[in-house]
Design a protein that fits this description.
The chain is an alpha/beta fold. It has 15 helices and 13 strands. It has 2 domains: 209 residues, NAD(P)-binding Rossmann-like Domain (Rossmann fold); 215 residues, NAD(P)-binding Rossmann-like Domain (Rossmann fold), CATH 3.40.50.720. 38% of the residues lie in helices and 13% in strands. The chain has an 8-stranded mixed β-sheet with strand order 3-2-1-4-5-6-7-8, with helices on both faces. The protein has a 5-stranded parallel β-sheet with strand order 10-9-11-12-13, with helices on one face. It is elongated and about 75 Å long.
């Protein structure tokens, strides 16, 4: 294990080079945290626009300033590139690539597999590879390791593997990469010690676990926990609404208990790159083992059903009895980002709603202070290219209804309430009852 000891001492003396693969919402904050400590980072991405932007000293991620990126590149600490042969210069490779679903809602590990094939021929002896992408337990050992071992430079090249799940929360100003506790699992105790030391250089608290699989399972459990609890309050929303009870007030009241309760809030469904996708990774893996994941699948169905519930409340507000009568109506969607105050539209719950309304002949427009245009996507390409409408009195008056889907801070909700004939509030924005506002 001489090469592992060499790597340990290089990291200890901060003489190691780090390669970050995937410079998105996970990778670039990681670059920022490492460069802050004066450690040399090579940043890899297949998106040439990102590489050009970073080499020009510009950031495209909220919370990472242009000044920081420019400072790191000017000091020679950060080297953005799409030339993966530069992997030969790094000691530690951290993989932060997407793990989406395929057309059948099964795990799509192609980004991990392609990355492993691409970098393996350039890995030097004693390299540490850490996967941070969320996935099902067994991915590192059963999927990634065979590809790397098959394609590495020679049989004498020793490659060490670990897993440390990302815990980024875009838009959350209370946490940054360095302050969020970091889980680490590795192939054996020696590799675990090296991986912990690596992360301790720039993370305040690093928590080792007994195996790679435990670390993989911990991350997916975190997101399943959120998905199930969101589904629970979405179901309670429907039940309490039928009783004439405001679920948001109920949750606020229950939150006064200082123990045994954690508040989750209902909404139009779930969105983002984690919660709608990650639970299905475990469901798929469980099916391979002949086991059912009933809670996970039920929560997905409940959260997906919110589209139909919102349309039902819209019909009630418009005084119509069937979806056929929606044809020709003008509806403004307020917020298409998946999360408040974040310019990220991945898996937004606004999109299935907009697509369904379009199918009913509704004239859809949207306003989002964080998003100018809807980007192409696998499921909702029919919406691609739509541009944000200015939020003015005239534009609001022309709508039959306004649907609040994402409760961005930079919206004049008093204007929306006073001018819109009908407002469907899926986020509990309005605490006071108004005749033209329906909570959904």
């Amino acid at each position: 294990m001489e090469s592992l000891n060499t790597l340990y001492h290089r990291i200890q003396k901060k003489q190691h080079n780090v390669g970050i693969i995937g410079l998105g919402y996970v990778g670039l904050p990681l670059v920022n945290a490492i460069c802050k400590k004066g450690i040399n980072v090579f940043g890899f991405d297949v998106d040439l626009k990102k590489i050009e932007c970073l080499n020009a000293g510009k950031s495209y991620i909220g919370g990472i300033s242009d000044e920081s990126v420019n400072s790191y590149t000017q000091k020679g600490l950060f080297h953005p590139t799409n030339d993966f042969s530069q992997i030969a210069q790094v000691d530690v490779v951290v993989i932060c690539v997407p793990t989406p679903l395929d057309a059948d809602d099964n795990p799509d590990l192609s980004y991990i597999e392609n990355t492993a094939r691409t970098i393996a021929p350039f890995l030097k002896n004693g390299s540490l590879i850490v996967l941070e992408s969320t996935t099902y337990p067994g991915t590192v050992r059963d999927v990634m390791a065979p590809i790397i071992n098959q394609n590495k430079p020679s049989d004498e090249t020793h490659i060490y593997l670990a897993y440390s799940p990302e815990r980024e929360d875009p838009g959350n100003i209370n946490f940054e990469t360095s302050s969020v506790p970091k889980l680490v699992g590795a192939q054996d105790q020696g590799v675990l010690d090296v991986t912990v030391l690596f992360y301790e250089q720039f993370i305040e608290r690093v928590i080792p676990v007994s195996s790679i699989e435990v670390a993989e399972a911990a991350k997916i459990t975190e997101n399943i926990f959120r998905s199930i609890n969101i589904a629970l309050v979405n179901e309670l929303k429907v039940v309490y609404d039928n009783m004439g009870i405001d679920v948001w007030e109920v949750i606020d009241a229950a939150s006064t208990k200082p123990f045994g309760f954690m508040p989750f809030y209902p909404g139009p469904g779930i969105g983002g790159h984690c919660i709608p996708i990650d639970p299905l990774y475990l469901s798929w893996k469980s099916k391979q083992l002949g086991k059912k994941t009933e809670f996970i699948e039920l929560s997905a169905r409940i959260n997906q059903s919110m589209t139909g519930y919102i349309i039902q409340k819209l019909q009630e507000g418009l005084g119509i009895s069937s979806s056929e009568e929606l044809e020709g109506k003008k509806i403004l969607i307020l917020g298409v980002a998946y999360k408040k105050d974040v310019p990220d539209q991945r898996e937004s719950p606004a999109f299935p709603l907009m697509r369904t309304l379009q199918q009913h002949g509704v004239q859809i427009t949207f306003h989002d202070p964080c998003i100018d245009k809807i980007l192409p996507s696998r499921r909702y390409n029919i919406l691609a290219g739509m541009k944000s409408l200015e939020l003015t009195q005239d534009n609001l008056k022309q709508q039959d209804a306004t649907l609040i889907i994402t409760d961005h801070s930079a919206v004049d909700y008093d204007l929306v309430r006073c001018v819109s004939p009908l407002v469907i509030d899926t986020r509990g924005v309005y605490k006071t009852r108004y005749d033209n506002i329906i909570k959904a």
